Input
Amino acid sequence: MNLSLDQRQLCDIQGRLFENSIKAGLDSPAFIKSFMTSSVAAHLDDEYDRLQWMGEEYLLEELEDEAGGLQHTGISFEREMMYWTGYLYRYWHYLTGETSNEIYEQANESIMNGVWIGYHALDPDMAVERLKETASNKTS
Output
């Protein structure tokens, strides 16, 4: 799939948001779940929303406010894995039109952490395809 420049920039912003959660000392699994099920993520899913262009630092503050605080202790995933996960989740949305919450239901933080070593070198289309196949095999 050929993303527009704006779409690629939003994938990068979301990747940096996930990466910044590590710098902020947040629990990675809790952060991913909080974000992917949040209204902040839903705003990013919209065709156009002013929140999309506020930058990753502002998005992190918005998520913190919405969640009433984020968990600051626990598991810390690798920085590269977090960037890849954030980027791929946003790419997945553009590829399929699925919402962040729908994507999370198919590939939660545990799945993403488990596959990133093997999938991060794949073309994003192929990584999404494999994740969707895994999800459909679990439900059938």
User: Anything to note?
Assistant: The CA atoms of residues 17 and 71 lie 16 Å apart.
